[in-house]
Amino acid sequence: MYCDQEYGKHVYGDGSRYEGYFVGGEGSGQGKCWYAGGDVYSGTWKNHSPNGKGSMTFANGNRLSGDWEEGALVRQDERHHL
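and the corresponding structure tokens:
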């Protein structure tokens, strides 16, 4: 994925959609991604992966918030279940 703008949108082949900031053409900074399976991540990105503070709301309504590194939750702040 590459975007030559500071802020933009990108739609992936599977229908997932990212909207947010880009650095060096990659999703970096604040952004939000609506994944094809219904999950939504909102927060900080680096090299187009969740990285930093953010929250993932799953398609079933559950939500995890905390610190992310390379797309994985490494420190959980809060968890909400429906």
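(Above: one complete record from the training split.) Residues 7-80 form one domain.
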